Amino acid sequence: MSTEACCTCAALLSTIPPTYDEKTEKPAQYERRLECCGRAICSRCMSDNPRFATYCPFCQVSITPSPLPQGLRDPPAYSPPPSPRPRHATLARVDTHERPPPYEEHQPVQPPSEKNTNEPAPDVLHFVDPDNDTVTNLSLRYGVPANALRKTNNIFADHLLHGRRTVLIPGEYYKGGVSLSPRPVEGEEEEARKVKLRKWMVACKVAE
């Protein structure tokens, strides 16, 4: 019993009957032996895909004339890539004019320009309006990712924003430097001082 299999469906050729003609009830199509690579395609695959009757899916060649318009060609047949060459053999073939220029000594080193140093902008203090401000709203107004706002202010849930009087807008994303919230009566510096004092009292567990 032959153990040869179809190259497309991997079924044994001995287990696949030929295709019969409906009128004469005689075998009309057996498996096809590919001339290019010696593989075989069963009659069932050619019945499901008539292209296999004239085309090799492995070598990508056809035994019929190409239907492409004039000026176009069939894609090239597949060929395995060449074996990689050793690195020293490749370097030996490099011409002299392709090699990098020799190192020149005593070249003055230009110090980096002060204008090119991108100093991060300072964080901006925003005074929270519990009725209108949300994490999504502040993200859109300042152009800052919502995750960056949560991380900078240690906000683990968006509803915790309403319990804050102020939040910091990270200067890494917001370069405007100006707060878009109404200023408090006592000024931003006084409010910032109270925020720092409140954090210190919480950290040290001081009531007054």
From TrEMBL:
Gene3D superfamilies: LysM domain. InterPro entries: LYSM1-4, LysM_dom_sf. Residues 69-88, 98-121 are annotated as: Disordered. Coiled coil: none annotated. Residues 98-107 have a biased composition (Basic and acidic residues). This is Thiamine biosynthetic bifunctional enzyme.
